[in-house]
Structures are given as structure tokens and as C-alpha cells.
Amino acid sequence: MAAKANAVVAQSGGPTAVINSSACGVIQEAVKSGRIGKIFGATNGILGILKEELFDITAEKPETVEALKRTPAAATGSCRYKLKSLDQNRADYERILDVFRAHDIHYFFYCGGNDSMDTADKVNKLAAETGYELVCMGVPKTIDNDLACTDHCPGYGSVAKYVATSAMNAGKDTEALYTTDTCTILEVMGRNAGWIVAATGLARREPQDAPHLIYLPESAFTFEQFILDVKEVLKEFGRVFIAVGEGLKDKDGKYITADAGQFGKDSFGHAQLGGVAEVLKAVIEKEVGIKARFNKLGTNQRSAMHFASLTDVNEAYMVGQAAVQAALSGENGKMVTLVRESNSPYKCSTGLALLSDVANGESKVPRKYINAKGNGVTQAMLDYVRPLVQGQAPITIGSDGLPVYMRFERKHVTKKLPKYM
Amino acid sequence: MAAKANAVVAQSGGPTAVINSSACGVIQEAVKSGRIGKIFGATNGILGILKEELFDITAEKPETVEALKRTPAAATGSCRYKLKSLDQNRADYERILDVFRAHDIHYFFYCGGNDSMDTADKVNKLAAETGYELVCMGVPKTIDNDLACTDHCPGYGSVAKYVATSAMNAGKDTEALYTTDTCTILEVMGRNAGWIVAATGLARREPQDAPHLIYLPESAFTFEQFILDVKEVLKEFGRVFIAVGEGLKDKDGKYITADAGQFGKDSFGHAQLGGVAEVLKAVIEKEVGIKARFNKLGTNQRSAMHFASLTDVNEAYMVGQAAVQAALSGENGKMVTLVRESNSPYKCSTGLALLSDVANGESKVPRKYINAKGNGVTQAMLDYVRPLVQGQAPITIGSDGLPVYMRFERKHVTKKLPKYM
């Protein structure tokens, strides 16, 4: 490898409040090392590499790079493009190596989830097979917190802080107006894992605090038990605040929104449209006879930089730095992990895991973190998540009173290869 | 009136991030004056008065009262109970005066919107008619910003700040992931007035910034123009971020969700369920052929104390103080207003308006604040709202990293009257 080979940093999948902090960690550590040439950003993740849409981050202003720490979403652009297997689509992987070769790129830092780790792993294997010198390092990112091999994922602490605070805020609203707005449903993300909705449990410091009921995709959901749960809470507190993950499933593992049975039909027998919150709202209004309303935070939960966790921002930066340090010390084909050394006081360091181990694993909320009835979380869950939401990440506020976020200028490189088909 | 007559403070309607600041202003100013006896809180607004559910705020810890400034929603409890006219339900108004008489209450401070001002006005008139000494003062509150006689309403600045920041955050998300998540719809509150959705315009510092399209209830909405708007933005930026008020109406003033015509039916011809965002999502997916997702902030927008405007919190406190000062200086039957003395530098003082004038008025977004196409806001709108979002209101963060809010102990008075029927 040339003494000063170039690097590419790419971001993939659903953005988070802190994935840019990780990119910042990669960029600043690479620059500091003095051992890496140019650092390219790939516009829209692996798509940008395939299309040879690369821009020179080392030509951006240092203050723009620094402001990555205070900007949500994915500043290089992200994508949801999933490459097929090497056998099925070797051409794509070869194209990636062609692009790397054309721009003297020998370091590939990929921030993403398990699909991205799978992609990075396959690119790496083809490079080894074909004798192209490449170091591939994975940088973990996902609000879903479902990556294997790591204690938790950068992005999770901030979404946990935001959804817990949102439950606290909207819970106060329900408490104030319970005589008419008796039931509030807060729908949060998490199609397969319930880590995000579990974090709303932090808001409930006292029994009467919201959320009174928490439902995770890991617990088989039944409408019958749900109605009983709601009635019981109503009896005790005169109001009910419910937090739900978007991916609730029945005992057969089917999403309840796909076939909600008798409860999923409107009065004409038509299937209810919409997400989990809409279905549950309809069930409550029909079966319990109280008004229900729902808040669906959507992409606002994963981009809430204005209230991000400082712990999360710092750890996101740390995994970016660690990826570069590992790459320069001879590691390859690994993802940086977070290792919780102690919980009280909280201490966290980084480790490494094989990309293939991360690609093939999934971390769900363990049974011991969910209460016996499947409608709440345990103290162990709260102890797990609490350290991750600590601290207020600094943001820049403009003269207009609102946050100021950066945007790369993106001076794209001159393309050297035929157009990607 | 006795030298130290008692006062009651009540909160009504949809909570805000700062209605408690107004209550705090009333309470602390009343205590400071030394001219008011006990200050009662009415549990759930006028309902609490009717039911004789009053608690002694002067018996609460001073730090609990102080923490009102940093707690969202309505700490005394709120309600949506609308009293009929004096002619139709004189008994209710007489009951209110009976409760006041039973507890030596001669000051009534009512924090709410125009319905509440109407109630306070009628109570006041009956008191005058029957010779009961009473001073009724209105304290303005509404996120909707639709009260007459005042430049703006406490509660609006904080929701404006939150929805603008939410548009900025989710806008960054759409920008990052536009290759798959091409369209995001942000639905905010505002059934009749578009002040809240108009405030999202603050997020758009550059043309490519979100939101690209803003629709207010004040502009007649047509699906045909909407589809053209979306296609035009898509062509220019490759993505589209849309902010909508929940109460969009067609040219006949009908809510588009009530009868969305050909666009409001699913493929079976059934009427679409759900709110504005769901209808627009369906239209975009069908007519433009891109994926659309929506975020519905719901009650989270009106309870977002964690990112409230300091200007708003301070002004909310100021109107509470001013209500007491006016009451003690001989004013009666009036609501405190906010008067914008200058915009640059921003300077705001308080004034007074007749309760009946506020009760019978409504402030909508004027035409000059909406762009010619009816799909965005003008510089004049931004100049109006910008001062109101300035500054970060302090909150208390607990050792668990999350906001700490107060709750009254609510030691209720012994009831002296027969039960309210």
C-alpha cells in the first residue's frame, strides 16, 4: 500500500442524531494520524461508491467537519441499497474495487447497521481474493440498538433520551387534560426490536407517571390482554398513556397491523389502514369507549439533535476514532464495538468484532428486561439504558434562535470510470 | 371586599409548555402583593370550581411553585368543559358564585383561550348583577395563537420553536435518505388557524432546506395544485418536505379529511381514515409515485418544555403578573394582552382588552403572511414569529439525565356545598 493511500467514509441506512459524530471521529483521527491521504465522502453510501460520486472531505473547511458533531442525519448522504450476495452480483463488488483503485482508496470506513457490515465484509473478501490491498472497518450506527457483538449502538442513547422525554412531556399533557383526552398513544420506531420503546420506561419515575403501558415487538401481543391492561390502568389512574414500538406482533410473529382480526376492521368490516398507533386507537375507542389520540414521532426521533445525549455523541465520535486507530494498527474486516466496563460509575471503552459476526447477528431485548405481563420493562432494562442518555450534547444556535447545522460543499471528484449501470 | 380576600387560579383547554409559567406569575405576584389571602388552584379548570375541588396553592412548597416555570402542561389540571350561555344554564354560573362565596374567593384568574374568556366574562357579569364582589381577569394561553386583541399568545413561541426545529431535524433526515425516503410530511396542530404550521417556515434558511411546501387552513386546498407543487419541488431538489396544519380545508371551507373526493378513497372506493398527513401520504404515493412518510407530533408539540422558548416562558410569566397587578389596581373583566412595541430590537409589554372582545374574536394568519401560491409563507410572517422563539428556557435535569417536572400535592379544601350535579 502506498504510504499515503486515500480513504473513503460512507454512511448507510436510517440516519441518527450522531452518525455524523462518528464520521467526524473518522475524519479528524485520519487527518491527525498523518498517515492517510485524501478522505473522500461517498454521496449516499454504497450507491455513491458504485456511481463514483465521491467528494473530497479534506477540501472542506475544518469548521464544517467539526460541526458534524452538532448536526443530525447523514451529512455525506445515506441509502438503503442492499447489495446481493457475491455469487449473485459479483459485478457490483468488482465495481466497488474498480472505483477504489481509480481513486487510490485503500481504507473503507462504513458507518451503518448489519447490512452495511455485510457489504463491507464482502467487499473486503473480494479484495483479499483479488489481491487488492484494502482495509475495511465498520463503524456501528443504529437507533434500533439491534447490532450483535456490542453492548449498545451509537444513536440509541439519543433516541432513548428523546422518546423518554417525549413520553414525559406528553404524559404531563394527558395528566392535565384527562377529563377529555383520556388516552394517549406514543408510537416510536423499532420494527423488530423493542429497545427504543423500552427506553420510554425511563420517564416513569412514579407509578402514576407516563407511560403506564409499554409494548415491545419481543412480546406476543394480544388485543384481549391489551384491552384488560388499558381498563386496569384507567381504573387506577383515570387516564392511560401507552408507548408502543411500531412492529408489534402476535403470537405467530405476524405484525398486528397486517391482520388485526376483528379489531382491525372498521364498522364496515374493512381492514384498518395505518400503523400500530392507529389500530390501537381504534381498538380503545371501540372496546374501552374512551377518546384516544396518538403521537407518531417518526423521523423526528432519530434526528433530534436539539436534545441529543452527550454520552451518545461522545461515544459515536469515539467509535469513529477507534476505527481509524484499528485500521492503522493492522486490524481489518472488523467493526468497532462498545464495551461497558462498569455501570456505576458508567465506563465504556471500544472493542472489535468480526464484520461477519455482526452481519449475521441481531440483538433483541432479552426476556429479563421485560416485565412478566409483557406490558412494561424491568429495573434491569432501566439500569441498562440510563447511563446512555446522560448529558446534553452542545448545539450551535443561530441569531434566529434555532439550531445551525452544517452541510458539505461536496466538490465531487472527476469521474474516471464508465458510468455505473 | 375583605382586606385579604382569596383568589382562585384555573387553567383551561389544551395545555402548553408555558401555561404553568403564567400560573406561576399569578401566584408569586399575588403572594408578593400581600393583599390577597389564600390562592386556590381549581382542579381541572372550571370543572374543579363547579365541583368545589379546590386546593390551597399557598400551602404548597415555594420551590414547587417556582418549578411551574419549568414544567409543561397544566399543573392544576385542565378541562374542555364549555358552559352554555347564561340564559341556558344560569344554574352553573350561580353555582360558581356559590363556590366562590363559600371559600371567600373574590379574585378569579382564568388562564385559557377565547372560550375561557367567555366563561370568565359571564361569571363576572352575573356577579355584578347579583352584587357579589368579584374581580375576573383573563390570562391568555394557546399554542394556536388565534386570540383576538393580542399581538401573540403565550404558548405560541414555544410551539413555533419546536415545530421549526422539528422541520429542520426531519428535513436533514429526508435530505440524507432521499434516494428511498423521498417525501416527508410533518403534521402539526392548528384546526382553524395556520400560525403553527407557518412557523415551520423559520427552518428554511436556504431554498433547499425543509420545509419546501407549507399549507395553512387559511388557504383553500386543492389536490390538483398540491400534486403539481410536489412534482415541481421534486424536480428541483429531488426530495420534498411538506408541513401541514391539521385543519386543511377546500375552497368551500370543508376539511379535506372529511371528504377528500377521489383522493380520499382507497383502491376499494372506501373513504380514507385518519388525519391530513395520512390523506396526503396516500395521494402522493398514488399520484406522484414516490414513497411518503409522515410525522405527527401531536401533543408532543404543545408540551415540549425541553426546548421551550425563553421569550415565551418570560412573557407567559409576565402576563400572569400583569393580571394580578391589574386586578389590584381596580381593573376588572379584562384579559391581559401582549403588545409588541418594536420588532428590532424586539420589545413587548402588556395591555388589557375586554374579556367580551377576546371571547368574540379570532385571529387568523393574514393574507400578507402567506405566499401568492398558498404553499408557503412570506418574509413578513417570519419577521413576526422570529422574536418569539428566541432563547432557551432553563429546565431542571435529574440525576437520571432527564427533565424533572413538578406536581402539586393538591391538599383539597373541605367541601362546604352540596355535591355538584
Task: Tell me what the structure shows.
The structure is a homodimer of 421-residue chains. Chain A is an alpha/beta fold and 421 residues long. Chain A has two domains: 6-142 and 304-359, Rossmann fold, CATH 3.40.50.450; 156-300, Rossmann fold, CATH 3.40.50.460. In chain A, 33% of the residues lie in helices and 16% in strands. Chain A contains twelve helices and eleven strands. Chain A has helices at 19-33, 45-50, 62-66, 90-102, 114-130, 156-176, 195-199, 223-237, 276-288, 310-328, 355-359, 379-385; strands at residues 6-11, 39-42, 54-56, 105-112, 135-140, 183-188, 213-215, 240-245, 292-296, 334-343, 346-354. In chain A, the strands form two sheets. A seven-stranded mixed beta sheet of chain A has the order 3-2-1-4-5-10-11, with helices on both faces. In chain A, helix 1 (19-33) packs parallel to helix 10, helix 4 crosses helix 5 (114-130) and helix 8 crosses helix 9 (276-288). Chain A is elongated and about 70 Å long. The two termini of chain A are 29 Å apart. Residues 264-273 of chain A have low confidence and may be disordered. Chains A and B meet through helix 6 and strand 9 of A and helix 6 and strand 9 of B.
Write down how many β-strands of chain A occur, each being a DSSP E stretch of 2 or more residues: 11
Radius of gyration of chain A: 23 Å
CATH class of the largest domain in chain A: Alpha Beta
Number of helices of chain A: 12
The CATH topology name of the largest domain in chain A reads: Rossmann fold
